[in-house]
């Protein structure tokens, strides 16, 4: 049983390029996995993901982290009779002064990885990882020149209802991830029509320091609960739109939640704005069916224009509020995937909408909080609060971060807060200076831009082939 893991760098040079490493557990033992396990790995973008049954995360590391130690009662099960194959996914990121066009990446060989510590003494709880957020895709659009852009990734109740055990699961640690322009991340919890206290809230994210951090107390999530990863971006320094994607010049909005007891029915619980929501947010009524490149059919004043041109030339300054309203209130596609990298049965045709919340949480404020001997009040006020800076600087950072769109956000300034290190300043524009469409809207990808993250997949066969340090 895995009790701890830490990064192992091939050299000091590779340590500056490795951005994150994720170890996946593969289900089954297909001939395709056997063949791939004997290969040297390949770029993530070229992998045939239809044969990869590797959708369970065992360990995740990001730059700035020293690894993670599980609580004494929880561990991740490592058994060769249950999983023979594991997949290592490594992303490399260039430094700021190495962005060039055309790209000229340095030739280098890297053997960095993860060292797993395990104990032969079983722990009382098996841990699992649930990914909640926006699916990395071009439909995740962040307009330029805005200080406060909100994106939301939904894990809908229909998915947790089908997957979670009757007594629910207990989230005990979270890794909250954006890329360069992320400013805040919140993991929200909705039960029926009531919004509960946020499971965690990072008001000062740093894309170079996004590791697993334990909650002060586990949070119970029941079947039917909705989880929402809410991310706030500051795109004021960018002149072009930013799209969702895997590279660090694109953006992401993900929360990896460590929980127990482990279940394999639901490992990835994302959402993706529907195509009607996207085109309506851009003032488009209808697209020309089958057009390539994709062209606009109506309204008449946009007829014949390509979708690409509309994205580039849209008047974001004057239309931002309407864009934000449509993207947050419009329909979306729930994506509920199992450990075998397949949609959960019964979720293939779901359509999602923003929750109709009729009751929200309120922070109980007390004039006697400072120096209070009321233990229950102190614990409530500090639920899932993490501080990596002095309290004085934390207060200044929270005040400077601005307020969310919702009126209740001011109520949780001192509650469920994860304060990261100083947020990185972004001065470069978006990766999407020019874009193209291939194979229709669903295959939209930016073209003509220097990729600044390279990702590789490496198969490791059998459990004993890991770098594992035995701890009895």
TrEMBL record:
Secreted among keywords: no
A biological process from GO: octopamine biosynthetic process
InterPro entries: Cu2_ascorb_mOase-like_C, Cu2_ascorb_mOase_N, Cu2_ascorb_mOase_N_sf, Cu2_monoox_C, DBH-like, PHM/PNGase_F_dom_sf
Entry's transmembrane regions: 447-466
Copper type II ascorbate-dependent monooxygenase C-terminal domain boundaries: 126-271
SUPFAM superfamilies registered for this protein in UniProt: PHM/PNGase F
Keyword Chaperone attached: no
Domain of life: Eukaryota
Molecular function terms from GO: copper ion binding; dopamine beta-monooxygenase activity
Annotated keywords: Disulfide bond, Glycoprotein, Membrane, Transmembrane, Transmembrane helix
GO CC annotation: extracellular space; secretory granule membrane
A Pfam family of this chain: Cu2_monoox_C
All residue ranges annotated as the Copper type II ascorbate-dependent monooxygenase N-terminal domain in the record: 4-93
Family affiliation: Belongs to the copper type II ascorbate-dependent monooxygenase family.
UniProt name for this protein: Copper type II ascorbate-dependent monooxygenase C-terminal domain-containing protein
């Amino acid at each position: 049983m895995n009790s701890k893991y830490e990064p192992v760098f091939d050299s000091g040079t590779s340590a500056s390029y490795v951005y994150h490493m994720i170890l996946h557990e593969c289900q089954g033992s297909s001939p395709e996995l056997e063949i791939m396990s004997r290969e040297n790995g390949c770029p993530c973008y070229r992998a045939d993901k239809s044969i990869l049954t590797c959708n369970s995360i065992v360990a995740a590391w990001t730059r700035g982290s020293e690894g993670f130690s599980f609580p004494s009662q929880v561990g991740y099960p490592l058994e060769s009779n249950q999983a023979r194959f594991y997949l290592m996914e490594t992303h490399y990121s260039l430094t700021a002064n190495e962005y060039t066009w055309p790209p000229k990446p340095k030739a280098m060989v890297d053997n960095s990885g993860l060292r797993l510590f395990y104990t032969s003494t079983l722990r009382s709880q098996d841990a699992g990882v649930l990914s909640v957020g926006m699916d990395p895709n071009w439909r995740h659009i962040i307009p330029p020149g805005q200080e406060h852009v909100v994106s939301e990734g939904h894990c809908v109740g229909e998915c947790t209802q089908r997957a979670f055990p009757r007594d629910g699961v207990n989230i005990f640690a979270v890794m909250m991830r954006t890329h360069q322009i992320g400013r805040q991340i919140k993991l929200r919890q909705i039960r029926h029509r009531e919004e509960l206290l946020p499971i965690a809230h990072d008001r000062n994210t740093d894309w170079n320091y996004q590791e697993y951090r334990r909650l002060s107390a586990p949070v119970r999530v029941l079947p039917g609960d909705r989880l929402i990863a809410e991310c706030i971006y500051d795109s004021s320094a960018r002149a072009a739109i930013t799209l969702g994607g895997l590279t660090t010049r694109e953006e992401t909005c993900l929360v990896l939640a460590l929980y127990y007891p482990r279940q394999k029915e639901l490992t990835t619980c994302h959402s993706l704005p529907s195509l009607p929501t996207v085109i309506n947010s851009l003032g488009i009524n209808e697209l020309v069916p089958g057009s390539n490149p994709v062209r606009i059919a109506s309204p008449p004043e946009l007829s014949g224009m390509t979708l690409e041109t509309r994205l580039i030339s849209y008047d974001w300054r004057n239309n931002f509020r309407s864009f934000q309203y449509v993207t947050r209130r419009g329909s979306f596609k729930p994506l509920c995937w199992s450990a075998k990298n397949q949609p959960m049965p019964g979720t293939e045709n779901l359509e999602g909408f923003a929750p109709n919340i009729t009751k929200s949480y309120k922070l109980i404020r007390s004039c006697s909080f400072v120096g209070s001997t009321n233990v229950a009040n102190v614990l409530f006020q500090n639920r899932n609060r993490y501080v990596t800076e002095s309290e004085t600087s934390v207060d200044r950072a929270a005040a400077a971060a601005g307020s969310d769109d919702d009126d209740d956000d001011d109520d949780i300034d001192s509650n469920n807060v994860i304060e990261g290190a100083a947020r990185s300043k972004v001065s470069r524009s978006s990766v999407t200076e020019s874009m193209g469409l291939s194979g229709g809207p669903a295959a939209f990808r930016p073209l003509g831009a220097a990729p600044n993250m390279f990702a590789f997949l490496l198969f490791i066969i059998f459990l004993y082939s890991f770098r594992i340090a035995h701890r009895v």
